[in-house]
Structure formats: C-alpha cells, structure tokens
C-alpha cells in the first residue's frame, strides 16, 4: 500500500479552505471515503452526558445507521472512544457485541465497521465512523498506517475549529469595542463606564453582550 502522507497534504489543502467545524468535518469524512478504503464515513461529536451529534456524513446510508442506533439503543458509534483507540466489527453477520444493530446493518449491505477515536474538540470526544460493504475490510496490514493518518486528520480538524474560535473572538471583540465607543459618545461616559453599562443592560435584558453590541452598532438598540 502506498504511503498515506501525500493524502494528508491533500486534506490539509482542503481544510485550509474551510470556514468552520461543520465544513471541516465534511472534508475529513470525504477524505476518509476517498483515501482510507471505505465505502461510507461520518464524524460524530459525543456529549459528556451521553449521545452523539453527527458532524458530517458522506451519504444518507450513514444517517440510516444512526437511526438504527437510536431505535435499538446502541451500536458501534453510540459511545465515545479515547484518542487513538478503535472499535471494529469484522463481519456484521456474526457480531456478538451489538447483534441487533449489526443484523440490521447487514440487511443494508454494511458488512464491516471501524470506529476510530480522534482528538477531542472543545473537550468532547470525536469519532470517525467507517462502514464497508466488504467483510473484514479493516483488517489489512495497512490499517496501522491509515489509523495514524486518521489521527492526523483529526488534529487538523481541531486546528480548523481553533482558528474559527479565534476568528469569532476577534470579531466579537471588535464589535463590542464599536458599541462601547457609541455608548461613550452617546452618554458621555468613560471607557470603563461604557463597558459597565453594556454589562448591566445585558444582564437586565438577558441578552448576551455580543448580541447587545450588534444591536447598538446596527442602530437597532433604542437610545
């Protein structure tokens, strides 16, 4: 099997063009389907209290498999995994772990599954869920290298999220600064007094300071 590293360079170029986590997750899912030798792929973000949110999927079949997990109260993608770990179903026709889900998946011609634990994002576990129409599709020797490639893909995705957060923080800071200046001029306040005014109005109206600032800057907030 050829080295996976050129594929990572391709993924890096894709992720450079992504604006947010959802778009980046979609790029990683497509990368997995195209480059990691699987037929269907998706990424899930796992909540601390349980349950998973599907960040991206390559096709409607992944959504059907998610619905089966909800209906049958379990499946290989229903639980978080530590970074670098994996859960594999070699053949869904003979699976003792989730027999009901696997039988239903086999009925959809999904015959093997591999779920990989990726680096956490914002403290939440992330999994890359891979599905194949071939039994034992994830047992070849190259999967050790490809598993490391998937981990690197997860790290790149986390970086996309961090850049998005930084971009949002800078935008929020600039917006609040504009609103602060407007309040200073409107009410003849100092910078500190204007900030205290924004916080007080935010608490009284139960509106986030950022949203209040946006209203003031747009002229929607009453004088």
From TrEMBL:
PROSITE patterns: ANTAR. Residues 156-217 form the ANTAR domain. The keyword Transcription regulation applies. It comes from the Bacteria. Pfam families: ANTAR. Gene3D superfamilies: 3.30.450.40, Winged helix-like DNA-binding domain superfamily/Winged helix DNA-binding domain (1.10.10.10). Keywords: Transcription, Transcription regulation. InterPro entries: ANTAR, CheY-like_superfamily, GAF-like_dom_sf, GAF_ANTAR, WH-like_DNA-bd_sf. This is ANTAR domain-containing protein. The keyword Cytoplasm does not apply.
């Amino acid at each position: 099997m050829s080295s996976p590293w050129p594929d990572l360079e391709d993924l890096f170029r894709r992720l450079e063009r992504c604006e947010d986590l959802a778009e980046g997750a979609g790029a990683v899912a497509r990368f997995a389907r195209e480059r990691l030798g699987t037929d269907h792929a998706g990424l899930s973000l796992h909540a601390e209290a349980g349950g998973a949110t599907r960040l991206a999927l390559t096709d409607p079949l992944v959504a059907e498999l998610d619905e089966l997990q909800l209906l049958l109260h379990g499946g290989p993608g229903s639980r978080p995994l530590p970074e670098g770990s994996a859960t594999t179903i070699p053949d869904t026709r003979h699976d003792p772990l989730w027999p009901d889900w696997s039988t239903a998946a086999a009925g959809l011609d999904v015959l093997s599954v591999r779920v990989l634990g990726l680096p956490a994002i914002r403290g939440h576990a992330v999994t890359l869920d891979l599905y194949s129409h071939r039994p034992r599709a994830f047992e070849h020797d190259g999967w050790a290298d490809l598993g490391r490639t998937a981990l690197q893909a997860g790290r790149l995705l986390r970086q996309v999220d961090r850049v998005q957060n930084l971009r949002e923080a800078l935008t929020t800071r600039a917006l609040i600064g504009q609103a602060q200046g407007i309040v200073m001029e409107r009410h003849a306040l100092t910078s500190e007094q204007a900030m205290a005014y924004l916080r007080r109005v935010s608490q009284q109206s139960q509106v986030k300071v950022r949203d209040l600032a946006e209203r003031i800057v747009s002229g929607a907030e009453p004088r």
